[in-house]
Design a protein that fits this description.
Strand content of chain A: 5-15%
Distance between the termini of chain A: 39 Å
Radius of gyration of chain A: 28 Å
Oligomer: homodimer
Number of strands of chain A: 6
Number of helices of chain A: 23
Structural class of chain A: mainly alpha
Shape of chain A: elongated
Largest sheet of chain A: 6 strands, mixed
């Protein structure tokens, strides 16, 4: 057999077209109802797979997606190429240099985020393999190792997208979460390579295991040192010579295929090599998303949907849905991740809400875990029931991480604003109708709290105001300044009944005047505070409550009950 | 068998990486020596195939590119998906609406460009099948039909690239050549579908043949009418709803796969359907190259090299190279195309050099013809020797079409410039060192030839000059104006020994001053003349010869012997 028979070829092409079309439609619908598109893509596979199409039109299903024969081989290779490209692009987003710079914090959370869920997953499935529907033929150690790894991995794209939606991607918290997740992915894929290697060795004998661990570590270490050095030189060389980005795209794909071939040939599966290739090549100017746009776009539009759609084709999701198993996997997954990462983040010095936001952020699984699950299913490491439970868990943790993080971080931001407000700096009835006069009044109240001279404070704010007035519209003005010698930001809120002209773009007089002074060298806190104040007061209900407040307790309550953010239905992409 | 064995998978991934890398390197080298990159990509396959690697390292070759088994099936499916996407993108470049608008001229050349080479190819191979190495089992009629079709097809991308390099893409000549080639492709792929259909019917019985022709025509007619209407509506609908181009990309690929599946299932091969899908979807705002950039880029960087590289893997190009057969195929191919298209273009009223440029432009084969040849080889319609001859012919005709067109069109352009110069308007010694004075002198000489009042002419040129001076650097100035009532452009060339300040960007005084007046409503001729004059005089040797000329005969000779264009090594992409 050298090629497909014409009829097989026709069915294969048709099945690709049908699968792509269905994933696109379902993915778009999922986004429209506020769910990640990967949910819809997976659902498309379920509709076309044994779950639905296999029941209502078994002949058509067998023609489109036969279980054996050349067409099945060709289809499985196409989905493998798809996931190889997907993991490569995922790896490309890893900025190794930045990750290493943040190693201390990232590693604390990252290690905990691996160790805790891994330990819980490993322990539970090693002790009670039957509860997880372990397949008898699989050595318990390998099965437990897989479960630990699958529960320990997290979904970088989901997390990154959530952080971007929250405008937190470039903040310290965002960098921490991303760094941890990347660290987590790297260890996760390394462990998964080990699982595949051990399983193929058909038994975790102490010698075989030592060899496998040595191979795994050697591959990763070589890739990140020598491989990285060579890759950076090659990229720079190609980029100097090429007239367009085609050379770099071609190089990335060649390295990805070669690396996947290498890890596959040493017995650790193609997926580990694909991800590693992405990590080795990523985070450079030559492989920036802008330069590799064609590859990233086509992966997002064609290859990722093909892969996620193909997941649903493998298994009957209704017949293999065991509620108890699904619940067990979900509970254990959340327990390990949220607790492990959250506590580690707490110990690293993050305040509680941020720490739990990190925990829930890291809790998102998704593509990575599903890719592991499907390979494990193909090899026969896990049962179809466990596969379904793992996929459901991946979807559920991804879907919940965004909203929960938003809630936690939204609360943190309101507290940040409130934390710097004070009974002494709340002035329910500002005197005067002139901008200078109002600012001097606020400065008078703020200076003792900030521990600075009132005249110095007022002059700094007025100097800033002279450059550009700080009215932001809707009756809000946020005069501000940075001051040397300040330990903490101080916020003062004054209400003006007649309103004061702060040169707002909409021409409205400012009735809510918030004075913000921040330490001289901390740019970020000022930007965050100004953004948070503007966002909070732009909510009409909050403005009404604030306008009615006559005491610090009332203003406190009004701000505390304000909604966290304006956007509540971001387009999460998993 | 449901998927590949791990070792097969590793070799498959490695073979893809190696093939991509080799095609990239060879393609880049080919471009560097002024050849189309497709030549290098094909050569890469020859190096990795039975011709070289199969000889020097047969074991490695057998591992990388086995002839049978699951890995071979998977590889052949990947190359098929590649050519399907390549042909779809090629079809997308077809602008049906514009093609129909130019149907009269396009169809004359297009029909001749199909009929003449088809007739010669069909006749020769039907009469002397043995000379073409016909395989005995193939019905002579089918074999001749294939040869006619393969010789009748031309290479749109090569032609388009050549025209773009010549800045002729948007001219009437360019539109004529492109229109003819597109028309030619559409008929060619339709005929090829018929060949495949007839061959699969295993005998051109009159009933079978009638059915096949009816099916072929029905598919094309339906696609271009109902299919086109539905596709345009669907594209507009998707584009209105989608937030990015992903929806359209996804739709294009789905339609391409479905269409390829359809033509494959009716027995006419996937390639016809892929091209037809491109044509049906092409030429709209939604499928403009800018919008489908990601798809087109990845096809150019990944899929096209994979396909062209795979050609060389199929056959030993040394053992199967029969010089006489190669020469015969090449001669017959050129005879039919150049003569057929050239004569048809002459009869359509084009002047000789343009007509022969059309002929040589249409003579370029390339991707299309190679795709046909490889499918014919797979089906056993042609021998390996004939396959090699057809591939060599495709490369040779592609490689020669650019230079020959340039020569022919370059001559035309020089004649254009010279045609408007006159013994009366050549002034070897301009008087004066002031711009106005020099212009008035040239206008005085030009006005009688143009049949206008010298003062009117001078005023128009000076008015234009006042807006922005016309010195272009290197001692050249091209004052110009458009005049009402002018029937023909008139060009005057004056040489100034001291030089005149025409405000050139390099600060040089103008010693070559060319006055150009053109009819008021013909924008194109003015732009073409100005560009041609600047290009011609920017050649240092030409400038020396012109500067030394003392008579119209001498200046004529100097301009006639000037090289056609500055760029002689464009980056042709086949």
């Amino acid at each position: 057999m050298t090629s497909l028979a014409p009829s097989e070829l026709a069915w294969l092409l048709l099945s690709l077209g049908v699968l792509l079309a269905t994933t696109r439609v379902c993915g778009t619908l999922a986004k429209r109802v506020g769910q990640p598109s990967v949910l819809g893509e997976l659902l498309a596979g379920v509709l076309l797979g044994p779950t639905l199409l296999g029941r209502v039109a078994p002949a058509l299903y067998a023609d489109l997606f036969p279980a054996t024969g050349g067409q099945a081989v060709a289809f499985s290779v196409l989905t493998l190429v798809s996931i190889v490209l997907f993991l490569t692009v995922a790896g490309l987003e890893v900025d190794l240099a930045r990750l290493l710079a943040r190693l201390r914090v990232a590693s604390a959370v990252g290690v905990a985020g691996i160790v805790a869920p891994f330990a819980i997953g490993f322990g539970a499935s090693y002790l009670w393999p039957a509860a997880f529907g372990s397949v008898g033929a699989v050595p318990p150690f390998v099965f437990a190792l897989f479960m630990g790894t699958a529960l320990a991995i997290s979904a970088l794209p989901v997390i990154a997208k959530t952080l971007i939606d929250l405008d937190l991607y470039r903040t310290d918290l965002g960098a921490l979460v991303i760094g941890s997740a990347v660290f987590n992915d790297l260890i996760g894929w390394t462990l998964f390579g080990l699982v595949v290697g051990l399983f193929r060795e058909a038994g975790p004998g102490p010698v075989g295991m030592g060899t496998e661990i040595a191979i795994t570590l050697a591959v990763v270490a070589l890739a990140l040192t020598l491989g990285r050095t060579l890759a950076l030189r090659a990229l720079a060389w190609i980029d100097r010579r090429a007239s367009d980005a085609g050379g770099v795209v071609s190089f990335v794909i060649c390295v990805a295929f070669a690396s996947a071939a290498l890890t596959e040939s040493v017995g650790h599966g193609a997926l580990m090599g694909a991800f590693l290739a992405g990590v080795v090549l990523g985070g450079t100017i030559e492989t920036s998303p802008r330069r590799l746009l064609a590859l990233e776009r086509l992966v997002a539009v064609v290859f990722a949907p093909l892969f996620f759609g193909s997941l649903g084709l493998r298994v009957d999701f209704v017949a293999n849905f065991e509620p108890l198993l699904v619940l067990l996997v979900f509970a254990i997954a959340c327990l390990g991740k949220v607790l492990g990462c959250g506590l580690a983040a707490r110990w690293s010095g993050l305040p509680p809400s941020e720490a739990w936001a990190v925990g829930f952020g890291m809790n998102a699984r998704g593509a990575m875990e599903m890719a592991m699950a499907v390979v494990a299913l193909q090899y026969g490491i896990i049962s179809e029931q466990l596969f379904v439970a793992l996929v459901v868990m991946a979807l559920a943790t991804s879907a919940m991480s965004g909203p929960v993080m938003k809630r936690l971080v939204g609360r943190r931001m309101r507290r940040l604003f409130l934390a710097h407000l004070d009974a002494r700096t709340f002035l329910p009835s500002l005197l005067g109708a002139e901008r200078d006069q109002v600012i001097r009044g606020l400065a008078q109240a703020t200076a003792p709290v900030a521990g600075v001279d009132p005249a110095v404070l007022a002059d700094a704010v007025l100097a800033r105001e002279a450059i550009m007035p700080t009215g932001v519209g809707q009756g809000i003005a946020i005069p501000h300044a940075r001051l040397p010698g300040l330990a903490q930001p101080v916020v003062a809120l004054g209400l003006s009944n007649p309103g004061v002209d702060f040169g707002a773009p909409d021409g409205e007089l400012a009735r809510f005047i918030v004075l913000v002074v921040t330490p001289e060298h901390d740019d970020l806190i000022q930007i965050e505070l100004l953004a948070e104040i503007a966002r909070t007061l732009q909510n009409p209900a909050t403005r009404s409550a604030v306008a009615a407040a006559r005491s610090f307790e009332e203003i406190s309550g009004a701000l505390r009950s304000a909604p966290a953010r304006g956007r509540e239905h971001p387009d999460d992409d998993g």
